[in-house]
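step=encode ok
step=design start
structure_in=
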C-alpha cells in the first residue's frame, strides 16, 4: 500500500496559510473612523456640500457608510473649503469645519453616529483644531469649543448634571483672564465633569492633538488618558513624547466600552468667535490615527502582495516536484 506523503498541494497550501495568517495579524489594527471633510459634489465618496453639517450624509469610510446623517441643534457648524494643515501628519486635503462667529453664544452641538466601534482595551484619537480669532465681547462665564468621541452630548451632560461618557478636547476661554487654553473635558475619577488644561494660553494657530485611552487600566474602573500636543514626530509613542509641546498621562473615568465612543461630537458653549476642526480619526493603534488614507492602505496592499507570493511559491513547488517525478520515472524505464 502506498504511504501517504504530503504532496505539492499541501506545501503550497501551507505557504498560503502562513501568509494569510500574517496578513490577518496585520489587518487587526484598523482605523475605526476617519473624516477629512472634503468639499465637493460627490457624497458617495465622502464629499460635503459647502454649508451646514446638519442633515448631510456623505459616505466617509471608514466609520460612516451613509447610514447615519449629521444631527444637532445648530446650523453654525459648516463644511468649508481649504483644510487645516500641519505638515507633521500627511493628511488628505480639501476642506474643514468652521463654527460661524455669533453674537448670541449659547450651547450648540452637532454629532454623527459611527457605523460600529470595535471592542478594544486601547483607543486612539487625533484631531486638528484651531481656536479662531479674538473672543470679542467679555462674558461672565467660561466659553468652550470642543470635539471628541462620546456616547451622547447635550447641555446636561456637558455641564455634568448627567453622566458624560467619552472625551472632548478643544478650547476654553476664561473671562477672568481673557486667555484661551487647550483643555480636555471628561469625567474625572471622582465622577465630576472637569476641564484639564493641556496647553495654556494658546494662540490663533492649528494644533495637532492625539489622545490615547487605556480602558479600565487603573483598577477598578478608571482609565488612563495620555495626550500629545503638537508632536514633531509621531512615528511611535516614544517619539511623540520626546517631541511634544505638551504631554501627560491622566487618571479619569470616561470610557467603559465601545458604546461610550459611538458618536463624533462637536460642541460650543458660550463661544462667540469662529472655531475650526479637521481630520478627525479614531483607531486602536497610534498608526491608525496619524497616517493619511493612502498610508493606511499600505498594510492591506502588502498583505495582498504576500498572498500573491505565497500562491506563486506553491505553484513553483508544484512544478518542481512534478518535474522531479517525471525524471525519476524516465530513469526507471531506462533501467528496466
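sequence_out=
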Amino acid at each position: 500500500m502506498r504511504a501517504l506523503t504530503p504532496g505539492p498541494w499541501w506545501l503550497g497550501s501551507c505557504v498560503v496559510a502562513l501568509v494569510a495568517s500574517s496578513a490577518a495579524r496585520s489587518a487587526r489594527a484598523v482605523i475605526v473612523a476617519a473624516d477629512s471633510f472634503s468639499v465637493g459634489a460627490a457624497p458617495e465618496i465622502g464629499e460635503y456640500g459647502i454649508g451646514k453639517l446638519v442633515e448631510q450624509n456623505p459616505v466617509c469610510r471608514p466609520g460612516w457608510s451613509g447610514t447615519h446623517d449629521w444631527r444637532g441643534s445648530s446650523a453654525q457648524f459648516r463644511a468649508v473649503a481649504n483644510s487645516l494643515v500641519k505638515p507633521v501628519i500627511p493628511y488628505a486635503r480639501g476642506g474643514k469645519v468652521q463654527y460661524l462667529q455669533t453674537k448670541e453664544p449659547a450651547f450648540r452641538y452637532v454629532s454623527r453616529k459611527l457605523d460600529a466601534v470595535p471592542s478594544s482595551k486601547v483607543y486612539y484619537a487625533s484631531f486638528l483644531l484651531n481656536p479662531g480669532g479674538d473672543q470679542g465681547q467679555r462674558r461672565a462665564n467660561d466659553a468652550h469649543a470642543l470635539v471628541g468621541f462620546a456616547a451622547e452630548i447635550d447641555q446636561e451632560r456637558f455641564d455634568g448634571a448627567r453622566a458624560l461618557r467619552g472625551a472632548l478636547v478643544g478650547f476654553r476661554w476664561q473671562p477672568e483672564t481673557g486667555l484661551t487654553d487647550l483643555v480636555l473635558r471628561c469625567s474625572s475619577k471622582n465622577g465630576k465633569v472637569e476641564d484639564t488644561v493641556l496647553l495654556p494660553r494658546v494662540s490663533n494657530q492649528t494644533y495637532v492633538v492625539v489622545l490615547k485611552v487605556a480602558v479600565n487600566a487603573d483598577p477598578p474602573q478608571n482609565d488612563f488618558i495620555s495626550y500629545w500636543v503638537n508632536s514633531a514626530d509621531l512615528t511611535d509613542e516614544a517619539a511623540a513624547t520626546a517631541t511634544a509641546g505638551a504631554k501627560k498621562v491622566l487618571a479619569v473615568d470616561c470610557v467603559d466600552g465601545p458604546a461610550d465612543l459611538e458618536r463624533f461630537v462637536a460642541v460650543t458653549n458660550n463661544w462667540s468667535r469662529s472655531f475650526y476642526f479637521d481630520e478627525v480619526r479614531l483607531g486602536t493603534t497610534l498608526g491608525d490615527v496619524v497616517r493619511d488614507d493612502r498610508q493606511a492602505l499600505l498594510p492591506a496592499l502588502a498583505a495582498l502582495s504576500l498572498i500573491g507570493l505565497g500562491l506563486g511559491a506553491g505553484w513553483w513547488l508544484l512544478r518542481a516536484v512534478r518535474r522531479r517525478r517525471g525524471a525519476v520515472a524516465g530513469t526507471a524505464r531506462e533501467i528496466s
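step=design ok
step=annotate ok -> Confidence is low (pLDDT under 50) at residues 1-28, 293-309, 327-336.
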